[in-house]
């Protein structure tokens, strides 16, 4: 069964949703189908550049002030930690473009392990406060998925993969994807947001039974997802 996941590596609900999806698969036990997972890029903040801006400063501008920002970060962090994810927004996270990270994911899908690279990128941002536009951060994340440092740097130093990533970003817009994470099951059923594991398990059951489409929901960094 093919699973297409649109995600951004600075989206907290994408990390939460990734793990909830995995738990949903586990709930199916022996009935779980073999999965072919494909990761696709999405940029929550396409205007971000390579110059780091403190995340709290960027969030305050986007969400209407420091107080609202602290509420969002505290609620999201608490949810992540309840899922066993050591999210820590006191590690000096910064706002930068995620385009280089998506190019790394493009490379990993072809020459390494995109699942492991994606997990390393999430941890670099949410746990360690690393700059995801920094080539060294990307080299280390690539190593988690079996990519040689020289190969990663060769991609980052050229335009390799750039056209392909931009084409996938355009595809997401054409498909009407405005929030992430978005999971598409077998090209037929969509479930959006960091839904509970049971919702993912039910969506997979529906797909296997060719039943009704799974429900879609999610708001801009609300309780279940993030939108641009």
List keywords for this structure.
single chain, 228 residues, alpha+beta, Glutaredoxin, 4-stranded mixed sheet, two-stranded antiparallel ribbon, 8 strands, 49% helix
How does this structure look, described?
By secondary structure, the chain is an alpha+beta fold. The protein has a domain at 1-42 and 177-228: Glutaredoxin (3-Layer(aba) Sandwich). It contains nine helices and eight strands. The strands form three sheets. It has a four-stranded mixed sheet, sandwiched between helices. It has a two-stranded antiparallel ribbon with strand order 3-4. It has a two-stranded antiparallel ribbon with strand order 5-8. Helix 1 (12-27) links the parallel strand 1 and strand 2. Helix 1 (12-27) crosses helix 9 (197-209) and helix 5 (114-126) crosses helix 6. The longest helix is centred in the N-terminal third of the chain and has 17 residues, at 66-82. The chain is globular and about 50 Å long. The model is unreliable at 212-220 (pLDDT under 50).
């Amino acid at each position: 069964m093919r699973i297409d996941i649109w995600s951004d590596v600075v989206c907290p609900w994408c990390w939460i949703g990734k793990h909830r999806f995995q738990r949903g698969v586990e709930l199916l036990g022996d009935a779980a189908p073999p999965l072919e997972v494909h990761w696709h890029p999405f940029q929550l903040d396409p205007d971000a550049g390579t110059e780091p801006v403190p995340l709290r400063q960027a969030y305050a501008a986007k969400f209407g002030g420091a107080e609202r920002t602290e509420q969002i970060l505290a609620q999201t962090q608490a949810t992540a930690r309840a899922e066993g994810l050591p999210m820590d927004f006191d590690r000096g996270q910064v706002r930068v473009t995620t385009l280089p990270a998506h190019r790394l994911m493009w490379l990993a899908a072809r020459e390494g392990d995109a699942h492991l690279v994606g997990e390393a990128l999430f941890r670099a941002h949410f746990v360690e406060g690393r700059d995801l536009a920094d080539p060294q951060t990307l080299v280390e994340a690539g190593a988690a998925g079996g990519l040689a440092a020289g190969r990663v740097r060769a991609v980052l130093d050229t335009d390799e993969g750039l056209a392909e990533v931009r084409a996938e970003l355009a595809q997401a817009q054409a498909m009407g994807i405005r929030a992430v994470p978005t999971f598409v099951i077998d090209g037929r059923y969509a479930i959006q947001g960091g839904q509970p594991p049971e919702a993912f398990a039910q969506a997979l059951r529906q797909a296997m039974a060719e039943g009704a489409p799974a429900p879609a929901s999610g708001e801009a960094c609300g309780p279940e997802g993030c939108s641009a």
